[in-house]
Amino acid sequence: MMRPRAWRLGIVGATGLFAPTYLHAAMDLDELELRAIAARREGPLAAVASEYNDPATHTNWQELVERDDIDVVAIVTSNATHHDIAIAALAAGKHVICEKPLANTAEQAFEMTEAASVSGKGHVVGHYMRFAEPILAVRRLIEAGDIGEVQAVFGRIWQPRAMHEPLQWWMTESECPTGSVGLLGVHLLDLARYLSGSEYATVMAHLPTVVGERPDLGDISRADANRWSEENPQGPPDGTPVGKVTASDFGTVHGEMKSGVIFTFTAGQTTFTRPGPTPDVQVHGSKGSAFVSYGAASGGLGSVALVRGTGKDIVDIPVADHESARTQNALMFRNYVLPGLQAHAAGDTHDVAGFNDGLAVARVVDAARKSHELRSWVDVV
Q: What's the Cα-to-Cα distance from 53 to each of 5, 13, 36, 176, rounded to whole Å?
């Protein structure tokens, strides 16, 4: 596939929480050139543009995807918008990188995957935990046979949230029907498939809403919501409007892969933890177990312990360190994301998740939601 020296990038949702992942990569890599950004709010959009070499700005994402000087569109918007933006970008002849989850439903994810296949363009979904250094270390253990045949994958991921953090899109059923499992748990669900090399078979899930009401400050940005929470550490002042949380903010999913590998994952956004997501992963095999922890002892880098025998044989597995999270992000794009984008455009397989992988995760999330409603096991179809 022929391409320019640099991928010319446009970012939709450039003022959002995960936008720096793409903005920093564009600044740090010769392989990327930031041409345009889009977001709804003019003020924050202008501020981002001034910080990142003044790319063209749009408050209408349709204008960005139609630009002739863009090769790749990165979608970093709320979940409910992924489908329409991706379909339009592919139709406009653009490669697409879409943040996870790929879509709110398997039906939408299927349409996106079909559109990507027909377009012949590259497609990547942001299941980037595959390339966290501790997970790369675990993958090497599996490939070397040190764990043996994978039998089970367990994990939990928590996103710290003040109990009085104001309502935002991800707390509403209309914008985020998949709840915490769709926002955070998809990382772990993807890992079960990636590390086991098998497809999902059946699941049982419990997806409650733990914090049912939150302050309602209207259409507020994530940054403003965090700032308001910090300014009111004891809770909302008297008279603050209150709104109902309609999306699940906690979830546990049990399941089995077609190979017989079992998994249990918990994802939540209702706990007080240290800053940043707190993923912990266990991979158990016929010869040993790998434990991934992001506890304070690892300095946030993450640690991996290989345990064999009766538990007395414990080996600390080296985890690559980097100068900064930003350096690691740049290397991830250079070594994985951009080659994966090119591979998927050529119809080749790659460790980087494509839309087909996002579709597989969407199907298991759909099954989990159905399981919660029925309070029973549900096959993944």
A: 19, 17, 10, 33
Q: Of 140, 151, 132, 251, nearest to 192 (Cα)?
A: 151
How many CA atoms does the CB half-sphere of 294 hold within 13 Å?
21
Residue 116 confidence (pLDDT) above 50: yes
In this structure, what CATH number is given to the domain that contains residue 288?
Answer: 3.30.360.10
Residue that wins the pLDDT comparison between 363 and 5: 363
Q: Does 2 fall in a domain?
A: no
Among 71-85, 141-155, 157-171, which is the least confidently predicted range?
157-171
Instruction: Please return the burial class of 160, using the count of CB atoms within 10 Å of its CB with bins 0-12, 13-18 and 19+.
Output: middle
With respect to residue 1, please indicate whether it lies within any of the assigned structural domains: no
How far apart (Å, rounded) are the C-alpha atoms in residues 268 and 254?
15
The edge-to-edge listing of strands for the beta sheet with 123-125 is: 56-58, 32-38, 7-12, 72-75, 95-98, 123-125
d(CA 247, CA 365): 14
Place of tokens 């002042």: 237
Q: What is the pLDDT of residues 122-137, one digit of tens each?
A: 999 999 999 988 999 9
The count of structural domains within the chain is 2
pLDDT tens profile 253-278: 999 999 999 999 999 887 665 555 56
What is the model's pLDDT at position 332?
93
pTM of the predicted model, to two decimals? 0.93
Domain range enclosing 59: 7-127+327-353
Task: Between 61 and 274, name the one with better pLDDT.
Answer: 61
